[in-house]
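Retro notes, structure queue

What went well: the backlog is down to a handful. What didn't: a couple of records were mislabeled last round, so from now on we paste the full input next to the output in the thread. Example, using SMP-30/Gluconolactonase/LRE-like region domain-containing protein from Fibroporia radiculosa:
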Amino acid sequence: MSTQESNPPRSNGKMLPLWGLAALAGAAAWKYSVAQQQVLSFEGLVPPAQTVIVDPLQYNAIGKNGNFRKDSYSSYFNPTSTAPPFFQAFHPSFFEIIGSSPSIREIASNPGFAFAHEAPIWIPDTDELFFSSNGGGALGFSDWDNNNQVAKIDMPEVYGAMAASGSSTSPVNVTVTPLDLPDTVQMTNGGTGPFRSSLLFINSGRALLPTSLTLVNPVPPHNVTVLLDNFYGRQFNSLNDVKVHPKSKKIFFTDVTYGFLNHFRPQPLLPNQVYRFDPDTGSIRVVADGFTRPNGLAFSPDGSIAYIADTGASGGFLGKNQTDPATIYAFDVDPKSQAYTNRRVFAYIDSGVPDGVQVDAKGNVYSACGDGVHVWDEEGTLIGKFLIGTESANMVFAGKGKLVILAETAIYLAQIAVDGPNLAFS
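Corresponding output:
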C-alpha cells in the first residue's frame, strides 16, 4: 500500500501551505519512527549517560552453557556487568521516562544503619522528604522492645550539595534529621500525603502496642492524631502500606503478618487483606483478600485501577520461597463501592519481591524490588529499571522529574523526565 496520498492534506477545509506540509510530513515521520522503534528494536537510539540498553532479543536464549541465575535474591539481571547505579532500558519507551539527560546518584548514606526503608512522603510546601527506618530488620535496630525511627532530609540541601560537587553522578551525603514522635507511633512502615496538611503514616505496631493509622504534623512538635487502631475491637496484624484514592479521597491500606514474621508483633488474628477506611464516617471494610502477603499499593491516575504487590516469597523467619508470589496484581476499582474486582496478574518480579508501588502521571507503574526500582507501562511490559544493585523497599516523586529511592542504608535521587501523581489531598 502506498504511503502517498492522492490529494494534499487539508486543515479546516483549506489546503495547507508548503511549510505546513513539510511540518506535517516531519511529524508523521517522527511518529512512525518512534512507533517502529517501540515495536521492532532499539536501532538508531543512542542511550544517554548512565544508561544501558538491554535488548531482550539479545538475551532471550542463554544456551546450555549459559550463566543462569540461581535465585532472585542472591543475584540480579545485569548482562552487561555495568556498575550501579545506572538506568537499564528494556524497551525504547523507557527513554520517554528518563529523558535525554538523566542522572542517578546517592544523596544520603549510613552503612551501619538501615535508616531509609519505607514510608516516603514528600511535602511540596517545604520541599522536605520524610521516611522511616527498617522495622525488625538486622540493621534496623528495632524489635519487640525497640521502636524504629522516622526521619527527614531537606531537598534544597541535596540540590546544593550536588551543585557543589561539580558532578552529575558523584554521591553526596546530606543531613538526616530524626523526628521525636510519641509512643502512639510504633514501627512506621508506610506513608503518603500530605493528607489534610499532615503526614499520613501507617504503623505496624510493636509488641502489644497496637498497629495504627495516624496523622502526624510535619512541623514540630509533631503532634499525632490516631485515626484507626482496630477492626471492630480486634487489633490488625501489622499494617503495612497506605494510599489515598484520587477521586473519593478514602484511605486504602494493606494488613499483613510481617510484624509476627519479623518477631516484633504477636501471633496474627486476621487474614492478610486490603482495607478501605473513610476518615469522615469511620467506616472500615475489606475490599480484597486472597493474598499470601499483600504489601505496597497504588492507584492509576484516574483511580479506576488498583495495584497490589504480593511479597509472599519473603517470609521473615520462615525464609524465602521462590514458588510463592513476587507479583503485582491489578484490579478494577468499583466506581460506587470501590471494592476491588477483576483480579489479574500485572507483573511478576525477576529480582526479589515488589514492595512499595508508585504510579507516574502517565500511568506507568514503579515498584521497589531486589535490585532497585522496576518500571512497567500500563500493559504490564517491563520497560526499564533504576538499577542500584541493592534492595529497595519504596520510592516517591519529590517534584517533577525527581524520583527519590529508599535503599535501606542509602537514599538515591534519579533526575528524569516524567512527573509523579498528586499525592496531596485536603
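Agreed that this is the format going forward. Reviewer comment attached to the example: The chain has one domain: 86-415.
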